[in-house]
């Protein structure tokens, strides 16, 4: 069974402010972001069916998919690092839940994007359509 991302190249070009992803890589990055959104929403989008969601929910999911693809592309090295923190000459850095990044089920997402995704009602234990 084929897996279709929640956003298309056309969506990406219309939504993304940075358009930092090369066009040849956009489809795979949107697919990866869609799978991560499935993790963040506990598979509810697949269970309910994307077409059965409200227009409001679909619009948010498309936007978050495009913006998450950009976030993951721009921060790929940091996200894929096996280190959770490091320190060098008195300067330290932590990876994980920080003031601007939220991690859940192994997925890192900016907190503003996660807050936007939560507006769909699909991220909590009491989600409904």
TrEMBL record:
This protein is called Uncharacterized protein
Q: The organism's lineage?
A: Bacteria, Bacillati, Bacillota, Clostridia, Eubacteriales
């Amino acid at each position: 069974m084929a897996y279709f991302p929640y956003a298309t190249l056309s969506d990406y070009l219309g939504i993304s402010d940075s358009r930092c992803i090369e066009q040849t890589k956009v489809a795979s990055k949107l697919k990866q972001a869609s799978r991560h959104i499935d993790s963040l929403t506990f598979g509810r989008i697949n269970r309910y069916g994307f077409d059965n969601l409200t227009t409001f929910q679909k619009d948010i999911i498309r936007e978050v998919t495009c913006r998450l693809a950009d976030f993951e592309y721009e921060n790929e090295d940091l996200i894929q690092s096996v280190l959770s923190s490091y320190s060098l000459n008195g300067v330290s850095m932590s990876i994980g839940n920080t003031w601007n990044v939220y991690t859940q089920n192994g997925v890192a997402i900016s907190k503003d994007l996660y807050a936007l995704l939560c507006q769909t009602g699909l991220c909590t234990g009491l989600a409904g359509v």
